[in-house]
Amino acid sequence: MKRRDFIRGATAVALPLSLSGYTARAMGLSPMMETLAELTALEDRYLVLIQLAGGNDGINTVVPLDQMSDYNRLRSNVALPENRLLKLNDKTALHPSMVGMKSLYDSGRLAVMQGVAYPGSNFSHFRSTDIWMSSADFNETLDTGWMGRYLDTQFPNYPVGYPSTAMPDPLAIQISATPSLTLKGTNAPMGINIQDPVAFQGLVTRARPAQNSFTEAPDNAAGQQIAYIRQVQAQSDVYAGTITKAYNSSRNLSTYTPANVNPLADQLAIVARLIAGGLKTRVYLVTLGGFDTHAQQVVATDRTLGSHATLLARLSEGITSFQEDLRLNKIDHKVIGMTFSEFGRRVQSNVSSGTDHGTSAPVFLFGSSVRGGVLGTNPSLTNLDNGNLRMQYDFRQIYATILKQWFGTNNSEYTAVLGKDFTTLPLIQGATSVANDQPNVPASGVRIQNFPNPVSSNTTFEYTLPFASRVRLSVVDAQGRTITTLEEQQPAGTYNINFDAGALANGAYQYRLETERGWASGRMIVAR
Questions:
Q1: Residue 84 maps to which CATH number?
Q2: Distance of CA 87 to the CA centre of its chain
Q3: Of residues 324, 371, 351, the one with CA closest to residue 482
Q4: Rounded to two decimals, what is the model's pTM?
């Protein structure tokens, strides 16, 4: 889009930008005021984590079209026919069962991250799962989860004092028989665990007895444990009520597969209703198992069928129905989802028409607020590390991106949660980073700011390019909707672009300058 076309925006409001030599003294905005200005938007964001338990075969999930000769040679008994694959681009395709996720990709609502793993990959299901859930290094053991530690920072001293007026609902909900390390905080699990959709239906339909009146627990070690159990029981009774209220005040507006046919779809249908019903729970964790495909991964007579195809069809159908449900309920901009599995599979298939434990694999991020596309290159099937794919991205880069760009943590906060600093990735539209301790400048030498800030009517974006590049400057609102965009080739230099914000509502807006070597971003506050 050329500068003359920049007026065209995502809304009906004309928001002209033009080149100008205008200069003004910048008005600083304190981190505290910036945080307060964005607080409402950040609280209204939800994360859905989908665990693909067992170790998903990433090579048959996202197939490298540019290496089909090696692919067929190394996977002669499980290779998928090229003419049945769902092409994302000239180099990359999805498994034929993933029709729904292909449609999400085509509409810009699915990001495919190639080669995700961690240094020193472990091939044990249990150990590797713990590493993913805790965000530990391969040689480190942590007894808390990455999301549990984040929730610790947001809701200190939990469970003491909760439910509260400010947070009457569970902090997180997991639909699984076993509590996950992901949600384990310093003092306690930072959410509640519901065994399965059947148990959930019992929760929201049965009558709950009035809370019991307990005598005071003795003042000793056993008494402290009794008091804690009583507290959790009382909390559970209250949470059951708020969950039931949210569930009964909403409905699923899209069509899911019939109940008990697709276990992932059953779980996501529940999550959609709870979010649509206004539950403030920020994080949901659901699971689809069965990905440990050592044998009979495909049907010999038609390799597009088999256990892996069934699992990927369930994944695709579940996510697609869930995303459509959110859209019809007009809350899709509030939710992002992420898939993860403890590891991928080896490049070469085994003699049992299956695949064995490997290292890296693709991760999917989905939602209307996600920057769709393929991130990274197809992993090489021949340049291997002891028969395994080489890593392109550390999974903790995705966690850092979610914490910083979606939940708005600053650098010191997300570093404390993850234990170290990880480079974030361009995955979220309208990325919000509140009160950063350091400039958000992944592209070396690129700077952007706007002044005055806060702005009542007009402001100027000033940015510096140390190199010639095609640039894209976007302004995005707190719901992740793009207001307007400028895109053109520019030589190195300093640029000033006027922006008329007179038609914008009060609030926080994100602006982002993308170049061929990285990006820089900032926040603009409109206040009158």
A1: 3.40.720
A2: 23
A3: 371
A4: 0.74
pLDDT digits (tens, 9 = 90+) for 368-377: 999 999 999 9
Specify the length of the chain in residues: 528
504: domain CATH number? 2.60.40.1930
Both tokens of residue 262? Answer: 């697709």
Residue 27 confidence (pLDDT) above 50: no
Rounded-to-integer distance, Cα 90 and Cα 87, Å = 7
Residue 172 pLDDT > 90, yes or no?
yes
Instruction: Residue 116: name the closest of 401, 312, 371, 370 by CA.
Output: 401
In a domain, 492, yes or no: yes
Q: Please identify, among 355, 373, 406, the residue that sits at the C-terminal boundary of a domain.
A: 406
Task: Please count the other Cβ atoms lying within 10 Å of the Cβ belonging to residue 489.
Answer: 10
- Does residue 23 contact residue 497 with C-beta atoms inside 8 Å? no
DSSP-derived pairing of the beta strands 86-87 and 92-94: antiparallel
CB 113 within 8 A of CB 375: yes
| 27/24 Cα distance (integer angstroms) | 9
d(CA 115, CA 121) in angstroms, rounded, equals 12
Find the domain containing 105 and state its range.
Answer: 55-203+282-406
Paired tokens of 179: 């509590």
pLDDT of residue 214: 45
Distant-in-sequence, close-in-space partners of 179: CB < 8 Å, separation ≥ 6:
189, 193
Yes or no: say if 452 and 458 are a contact pair by the CB < 8 Å rule: no
Q: Judge if 353 and 439 occupy the same domain.
A: no
Domain end among 371, 406, 441: 406
3-state secondary structure of 183: helix
In this structure, the answer to whether residues 114 and 181 fall within a common structural domain is yes
Type of residue found at 122: N
Would you tell me how many other CB atoms lie within 10 Å of the CB of residue 452? Answer: 17
